[in-house]
Amino acid sequence: MSVAERLAAVRAEIAAAAEAAGRAASDVTLVAVSKTQPAEAIEEAIAAGQRIFGENRVQEAMAKWPAIRARHPDVIVHMIGHLQTNKVEDAVATFDVIETVDRPKLAGRLAAEMAKTGRRLPCYVEVNTGAEPQKGGVAPAEAEAFVRRCVDTDGLDVAGLMCIPPAGEEPSPHFALLAELARRAGVPGLSMGMSADYAIAIGLGATHVRVGTAIFGPRRTS
Ligand SMILES: *Cc1c(COP(=O)(O)O)cnc(C)c1O
Question: Is the Cα torsion angle 10, 197, 81, 163 positive or negative in sign?
Fold first, then answer.
């Protein structure tokens, strides 16, 4: 199948999952995760109408996206990977949305860089719903206070919460927990659901699903 065909299939499944949940398909934004994919594959998705993408590495995004943006100024690129503080300057220049704010130092650096450049990017707070030590994200119990800190102390535009459930676990409890935490924190966005489980995430309120392999096929490098 081509990228355009796979994209159409994903869009159809998003619409069906939204309908089953009594939601409008337009309430769910598809973030096409293009990490490791070459510019040609991204151009295929753009030709098929996709405009919102996700990348997980600052360096890779800096290498790929300026040329694509020059041809398609309306693309939006989300940062969905772990962000080191020494990459904040490049990340704010390269991305349109930062989904992985997960510690005070990073929030402070992002706020300072956004103030300096006047690029006020929407942010998501990443929550480590599975309490996995190797993963980024704030602890669920700290999510509400951290969101408040990001908004009140740093002045960040917190659009919602984001999570990556533990691999091999039933994702539903994690999605439900993220939705509850967002409700308590008073933020509307819920970035959750990947190729294997985005329909489930939509049923539990996802506003953004991050889908890579179901659109682009296997990743090109590791
Ligand atoms: C790679 C990645 C995705 C997409 O994963 P697929 O299983 O290929 O859909 C989504 N979110 C994050 C944070 C990722 O790193």
Answer: positive
Q: Which atom of ligand 1 is nearest to the CA of 198?
A: 9
Q: How far is CA 141 from CA 144, 145, 180, 204, in A?
A: 7, 8, 11, 20
Domain residue spans of the chain:
3-216
Ligand 1 centre to CA of 116 (Å) is: 31
pLDDT digits (tens, 9 = 90+) for 194-204: 999 999 999 99
Per-residue pLDDT, 218? 95
The per-residue pLDDT for 222 is 53
Contact 213, 202 (CB under 8 A): no
CATH no. of 3-216: 3.20.20.10
Q: With pLDDT > 90 as the criterion, what percentage of the chain qualifies?
A: 99
Q: 162 CA to middle of ligand 1, Å?
A: 12
Nearest to 192 by CA among 160, 157, 168, 219: 160
